[in-house]
Design goal:
The structure is a homodimer. Chain A is of the alpha/beta class. Chain A has one domain (about 5-245): Carbamate kinase (3-Layer(aba) Sandwich). Helices cover about 40% and strands about 20% of the residues of chain A. In chain A, the strands form 2 sheets. In chain A, strands 3-6-2-1-9-11-12-10 form an 8-stranded mixed sheet, sandwiched between helices. In chain A, strands 5-4-7-8 form a 4-stranded mixed sheet. Chains A, B: Homodimer.
Chain lengths: ~250, ~250
């Protein structure tokens, strides 16, 4: 069996200009692609998009700044559960046996912000033929109440622990772009793209792409970044967009 | 810090004669008691009552008989999430910092039906001042799809792993009853009550009380079984109903 971990970007499946608003057409489009795919084991992770982010910033919660206010937890987590229910029901309409794994129920961070995410239930779900669905969420954090865990962190943690064969990021960009805005087909070392992406810490400048590439080079499984119109190709085993393999 | 694990019986907080119906008055009553309590660390677990049970039997799912039908999973789990949202919102109205831990997201059974329930996130939630709330749910089960995990199993697993100081079962009966229907104040060995309860395997006859008492005698923490009007006394540190301490 071959395991694929697929991230559906929050800005792909939601309308990022309107709070708590789906991009229903795009969600249908990606759900069609997942429903039509002939693949073995699949874990899906979706981002927060316009559901989680504005609730998180209203409450001042980020990956590093926490809150112990239960209203903040319920507000952010509740918005993400709502988005998750939309994603699940669109998948069920296409006979994808998707089941929810709420990250807040299972994950935690210690006082060094290290994420712990037990995955035995995910492995068993896969073995029983289900498609576990996770999403960016709040996570309890020792000494800080709750902070945010991103979909990307969950992808990395699941892929590493379950020894995934392939990782895909379905995003709003067609891949990692070079200085002429052309897609770089493959990245095998950070040095080769440092000129384009800048230092890997400068996530502000690059919209997170630098840090993402650096993290994916360490993953131990090949990862592809591609746009929604390449999702079917990715699920068919092709390497659309940018393939990152350290 | 002292940890209390409290089970709210499904037949206490729901109207067991009507599918998917709360006993709203009783839920308010127990939420008042929890909201007024002066206790350190508290984990709440609630049963399924009229929400989970009839969906589970419609789909033929029990603790031992499984299903791989995603519609069954979503139906049973969805009903329990609905009940859980009622419980959480009544607690929030009383300023109890209750947060959801969905058992299906975290637990699993292996092929020997052994339950695995990671609790690091629950321990961290307690440390951050939250009140984790779990409930009887579906659980993925190696070789069987999903089966049911009861609230009682969750109570036992959490109490044992987190070394609880006290365990309480708020139920529809005032305690374990003797042959004259009087409450037995304390049970310290199974032999002392075998005449009344019968063999501990004969759960059909006793409505599960025999197996429950046998399991609680093994728990390593004192457990009390009592009716809702004794909940405040229990949370105040008293020993209403039947105290079981092996």
């Amino acid at each position: 069996m071959s395991l694929t971990v697929l991230k559906l970007g929050g800005s792909v499946i939601t309308d990022k200009d309107r709070p708590d608003t789906l991009d229903g057409e795009m969600l249908d489009y990606v759900a069609d692609a997942v429903g039509d795919a002939q693949i073995d084991d699949l874990v899906l992770v979706h981002g927060a998009g316009s559901f989680g982010h504005h609730h998180a910033s209203e409450h001042g919660v980020s990956k590093t700044v926490g809150s112990s206010d239960v209203a903040a937890v319920i507000d952010i987590h509740g918005a993400m559960e709502t988005l998750d229910q939309f994603v699940l029901s669109r998948l069920h309409e296409r006979d994808v046996p998707a089941v929810p794994v709420h990250p807040f129920s299972v994950a935690s961070r210690d006082s060094d912000a290290e994420l712990s995410l037990p995955v035995q239930q995910i492995a068993t779900m896969l073995g029983e033929g289900f498609v576990p669905v996770l999403y960016g969420d709040v996570v309890v954090h020792e000494g800080k109440g709750v902070t945010i865990v991103s979909g990307d962190e969950l992808v990395t943690s699941v892929a590493r622990q379950l020894d995934a064969d392939r990782v895909g990021f379905c995003s709003t960009v067609p891949g990692v772009l070079d200085e002429d805005d052309a897609v770089i087909p493959e990245i095998t070392s950070y040095e080769s793209v440092a000129d384009v992406l800048g230092e890997s810490e400068s996530t502000d400048v690059t919209g997170g792409m630098a840090g993402k590439v650096a993290a994916l080079l360490e993953l131990g499984a090949p990862a592809s970044i591609f746009a929604p119109d390449d999702l079917t190709a990715f699920l068919d085993g092709e390497n659309p967009g940018t393939r990152i393999d350290g």
